[in-house]
Design goal:
149 residues; 7 helices; single chain
């Protein structure tokens, strides 16, 4: 039919280095511990460096970190303040903020669509310039930082 598209459950391309759900869940648990229970310099980066940067792996890790941010600010009673806060000027911080706000306002489906777009980068884009990677690192750095008073 004209104007309709087939909805794909997971439009991200498969890659030989994609990790299984169990492997990603294990890394996500270790990330949570490294950022909250036992923070140490370089631990989070080392964990992230150990995960192949495929679109599916990146999307899974970004979603996990966004969820962790949302849980943290809700637990601190800052959910409404974060959701109402102005969007940061820096592009990576702005995207990260908008994703966390999507989780805080219970609009995860919209956030997941954005995450899927962020996670995919053409092979011609240098790894250091890939938006998904930059957002992932920004979210991890923010979670590993001390909680503001």
């Amino acid at each position: 039919m004209f104007g309709s598209r087939t909805a794909l459950a997971d439009p991200l391309p498969e890659h030989d280095d994609d990790w299984s759900a169990d492997e990603l869940a294990a890394v996500q648990r270790r990330l949570t511990v490294a950022m909250t229970v036992d923070p140490a310099p370089g631990r989070v980066e080392a964990l992230l460096d150990g995960v192949p940067e495929t679109p599916r792996n990146l999307a899974s890790l970004i979603e996990h970190l966004v969820g962790e941010h949302a849980r943290r600010v809700r637990g601190e009673g800052r959910g409404r303040a974060i959701a109402a806060a102005p969007v940061p000027d820096e592009p990576v911080a702005a995207v990260s903020h908008l994703l966390v706000v999507r989780w805080l306002t219970r609009r995860q489906a919209a956030g997941r669509r954005v995450i899927r777009r962020l996670a995919y980068a053409p092979a011609t884009t240098a790894p250091s310039e890939r938006t998904g990677r930059l957002v992932l690192r920004h979210l991890a750095d923010q979670l590993a930082a001390p909680v503001p008073a």
